[in-house]
Specification:
mainly alpha, 0% strand
């Protein structure tokens, strides 16, 4: 029997996992990589930006800024990044539904282009306000991508690889942190004249995503469940898996589509009103808050002051900072000797970041994808993003003052948060490994209603043929 000719409508079958791998890279380079990169590069030009702020103010008014006001302006420059992230988190849900997962990530790079221009010309324009606005826009970019990237990848990965794919968001964050620290070395772009280029270098990963991501498929679940496009879903699924035999996965997605049939996407406040989502919402709130209140991200923004406070020589601080990012990236702690207590303090910070990279950094980002169905997922990511960026803003703004107030006991409050988060995760978070989204939803529904009633009563939802927020 002769082989039938391949239909021109059928997608070209790729090597298994190749397209998924390329999608992970394309989404990550302009997503969580940008988050980590912009989180860490602001540390290198700390003194130069403070001097620039003071000189600019003196040129305008004829008098220098007091030290405490310089510190306040610097804290605002750092903290406007998470404030922008909060706005981005609020945009992420509507964007994910209106534009789709992939197109949202592409459009999101508009904020990067504008911010890079502001950073690059801030020094020539003698405007520290341009730096502040650029940081705000980069925060919006990070807020959108931090929510949509794990949603996009979680919906595109097979259930067997969902956990590994979820960890790639943390890997790209750590890679961005390390690259930001390396590029911020004085020998590269961390010098007194090159810092505007350092801040504007965020344009590079943005351009890489703009070039690569349009060539890759959209989330199959979005195409079928939100758009009702069976052919596009099948084609995307075949591209991601590298085979035309995706019958079992199509059936699983169709089951989830049937369970969501006629239901609109949940609004933000509806998540807190629905008792069938109570455990999911509590888990999301507790663990997302714990991830930011553990104090890890503040190390990257204020690593210089932390290491100087610990006693590390000034000329060696920039190399110690690279060590913090390397710990999270490689999730390995290597140390050959401890000549003194200052270096012991540095190693403790490395170990702290190592534990963060192994646990909360990778796991928390996928929680909203796994614990909520398609109708509740965008709103769940909005809740997660609001918590993440609000807490990051508050911690970033208050951290310099906490350093002065608590000194060597700075991380005691963060320790308490870590312990509470670990206890909650161990006692109340269900295992999701190897389960379909529908299986997880059914198990959580049973856990939410078991103690309330033996036979759960259902009320017919409002039938709206749309998933708009």
């Amino acid at each position: 029997m002769e082989d039938k000719p391949e239909s021109p409508l059928q997608p070209r079958i790729q090597f298994p996992g190749k397209v998924l791998f390329l999608t992970i890279c394309a989404a990550g380079i302009g997503g969580t990589f940008q988050f980590g990169y912009n989180l860490s590069i602001i540390n290198a030009p700390t003194l130069y930006i403070q001097e620039f702020t003071n000189e600019t103010w003196q040129a305008r008014t004829g008098r220098a800024l007091p030290d405490h006001l310089v510190l306040l302006v610097w804290s605002l420059i750092v903290s406007l990044y998470p404030l922008g992230g909060l706005f981005g988190a609020l945009l992420a849900g509507p964007m994910a539904i209106t534009l789709g997962r992939k197109k949202s990530l592409i459009v999101n790079n508009i904020f990067v282009l504008v911010a890079a221009v502001l950073f690059g010309f801030s020094c020539k324009a003698s405007s520290f306000e341009m730096i502040m606005l650029g940081r705000l826009l980069m925060g919006v970019n990070a807020g959108v991508s931090m929510n949509i990237q794990p949603m996009y990848l979680g919906e595109s990965a097979p259930k067997e690889l969902r956990g590994a794919v979820a960890m790639t968001s943390a890997i790209f964050t750590a890679l961005g942190i390390v690259m930001g620290q390396v590029v911020g070395l004085r020998e590269l772009l961390g010098g007194p004249q090159a810092w505007p280029l350092l801040l504007a270098s965020c344009l590079v990963p943005g351009v890489l995503q703009l070039v690569s991501l349009p060539l890759l498929p959209e989330s199959p679940r979005y195409l079928l469940i939100d758009n009702g496009d069976t052919k596009a879903c099948l084609a995307a699924l075949q591209h991601f898996r590298g085979t035309r035999d995706v019958t079992s996965e199509m059936e699983e997605i169709e089951k989830e589509q049937a369970s969501c049939q006629g239901r609109r996407a949940r609004r933000l406040w509806e998540l807190f009103q629905d008792r069938t989502l109570r455990r999911q919402v509590i888990s999301l709130v507790v663990l997302s808050s714990a991830m930011e209140l553990c104090g890890n991200d503040s190390v990257y923004a204020y690593a210089s002051s932390v290491f100087q406070e610990a006693g590390i020589p000034t000329e060696k601080v920039q190399y110690a900072i690279i060590g913090t990012g390397s710990c999270e990236l490689f999730t390995a702690f290597i140390s050959s000797s401890f000549p003194g207590m200052p270096y012991l303090a540095m190693s403790c910070i490395f170990a702290f970041i190592l534990s963060f990279g192994i646990g909360p950094a990778g796991v928390t980002g996928i929680l909203a994808t796994e614990l909520f169905d398609q109708t509740a997922r965008p709103a769940a990511y909005m809740v997660c993003g609001i918590l993440l960026w609000t807490i990051l803003f508050l911690v970033g703004l208050s951290f310099p003052f906490l350093v002065k107030a608590l000194s060597h006991f700075l991380y005691v409050p963060f320790l308490f948060v870590c312990v509470c988060g670990a206890i909650y995760a161990g006692l109340f978070l269900p295992e999701t490994k190897g389960k379909t989204f529908l299986d997880i939803t059914e198990e959580l529904h049973r856990l939410n209603l078991t103690k309330r009633t033996r036979v759960p009563t259902w009320s017919d939802p409002e039938v709206i043929q749309s998933t708009e927020l």
